[in-house]
Hints:
Layout: H1 3-24, E1 28-29, E2 31-37, E3 40-46, E4 49-53, E5 58-64, E6 78-83, H2 89-96, E7 111-112, E8 120-121, E9 126-138, E10 141-153, E11 161-162
Antiparallel strand pairs: 1-11, 2-3, 2-6, 4-5, 5-10, 6-9, 7-8, 9-10
Amino acid sequence: MSLEGGQKLVNQSESQKQLSASLGRVPSGLFVLTARRGQSETGMLTSWVQQCAFDPPALSVAIKQGRPVIPWLTEGSPFTLNILDHTQTDMVAHFGRGFSLEEPAFEEVEIERPPDGALVLAEALAYLQCTVEKHFPIGDHELILARVTGGRLLGEGQPMVHIRKSAMHY
């Protein structure tokens, strides 16, 4: 390999590092997505969430392909997006490990089941009830577009915001 070829590899590697660092600075929140199917319930930590429409209100959620909850998020399926307060690192630790659909996701976590069908973390800052409109595979994630059908502010505080050092992994 010539020096010029080696220099290209170094420049590409440095370019990738710069891209990763720059993309990692796109802020995102930290949320707990909860869903149920029949008597089964689950929850997962998610960070790539963004409002994407005003009327009707809608949001997008990107979930890594292969996550157990994805088959539950078909068109028309409901889910709840629980918005975490910036102090709720315990929820990040609890839901960040992930759960299979057979595991109880809510042990040691207080949840509420209001009559409107939402599955709400009692300590959440707020929650949004959503219905899946569409989903698309995109790279290594599944992009879910959902209509927001309801929601409620449960407390006062600041939402948890997350900024990565690298955009190439969680």
